[in-house]
Amino acid sequence: MTPPHSLSELYPRVQQFYADQVHALDSRQFDVYAGTFTEDGEFRHTPGRPPARTRRGIADELSAFHRERFGDEPVQRRHWFGMLRLDQRPDGEIHSTFYALVVTTRPGVRVPEIAPSCVVHDVLVENAGRLLLRSRWVEHDWQPEGAAAPAGGASAHTTDEREVEVGAPLR
Amino acid sequence: MTPPHSLSELYPRVQQFYADQVHALDSRQFDVYAGTFTEDGEFRHTPGRPPARTRRGIADELSAFHRERFGDEPVQRRHWFGMLRLDQRPDGEIHSTFYALVVTTRPGVRVPEIAPSCVVHDVLVENAGRLLLRSRWVEHDWQPEGAAAPAGGASAHTTDEREVEVGAPLR
Amino acid sequence: MTPPHSLSELYPRVQQFYADQVHALDSRQFDVYAGTFTEDGEFRHTPGRPPARTRRGIADELSAFHRERFGDEPVQRRHWFGMLRLDQRPDGEIHSTFYALVVTTRPGVRVPEIAPSCVVHDVLVENAGRLLLRSRWVEHDWQPEGAAAPAGGASAHTTDEREVEVGAPLR
Fold first, then answer.
1. CATH number of the domain that A73 lies in?
2. Which has the least CB within 10 A, A45, B62, C58, C111?
């Protein structure tokens, strides 16, 4: 049983969790990034690619993706997350939905590319006092997946289905 | 009488409020967006357009604006808010000022347009434990309004006029 | 001795500190910006320019930089900070690392320039209940400085060197 957290406690904690996570990702510490998932975690980051599973699988998928996409190019990527919505469930899961932009800079080129725009659906759990990602599903705005549910789709769309009462008291 | 909130409580709560609000807006749930205003709320979103008033008026204005601007184009917009400043007033009003960017993606086009850059002036109130917007005024950086005060301008500029003592303790 | 803060208290407080700071900066209130540093604060904002020191020196450097860069152009800049990581040290220093983007709008031009992408390394201290910057070092992604340590580099890289255990409990 995980006790519910106040939004005051949870919100900055999740913001810091994401900051730690993307600083690792953008430094190409793929093992550290994968270590932010549960052992059996699932990660769907690009439409058309099968989901990666387990920490080992997630780290391998990220290495492969970067190699295919950038080869030896010394690009610096920066993942920005924003407009974070958190929803604590009675079973202790934390459903998190937020916007993401990827900023990519090439050495000597002052103006970065900012693309794509995404919305990310996470399921977080707490394990021995640590936050971990059970699943992450990234939707790309330019490649709408429509009504297609992700494989093992329990983690998808859930935050969109909740009754929204914007501005309600903390829960 | 609304009791004052600590910044620890208020800041994440307002961030979540805005996240819920823009996720609704960007899903074109204009009624949900309008429902984040007080019944007599006022919304000035674009220079040269008269302010919309009341929830009904705000929802109608958003529908009209989207129809004129995008017609049947299947664009996906994402509103990003950042650099949020909160100022609690003795009367319980919360004055909020922040930056905004609008990210617009068209299907099949990977790189979104990011424009315009804005600064937003909100007045929030708490009603039966719920945050609601009493007024929102959006300034567009590319169309400076100069010294022109908005109609019923009590809500405008106020956060800029306060004595800034950056880094002061919570209040 | 500064007591350690909970992340719940510290994180929103630093976010508000940065918001206050950049609203001042983007309004060209360089004295207010400089006043967010300690009296002997150090500010390195652009590769190749020597660090500015003391509040007077920082305000002067900003005035000079803006004059050189923009002259009388009526540009509106907006500094966006994101993906904030905070690390409290036993001696009371708060090491803060975050991403930054500069959004620059020219009157009449709807689409702003968004550049450069940066990562910022701050050292914050608390003085008489107020947060102040002891040092700020801005790395520009398009001009990698490599292994070159900044002058008086105690403040640099430190947050990257800490043992990252993402999602660990508050400390």
1. 3.10.450.50
2. C111
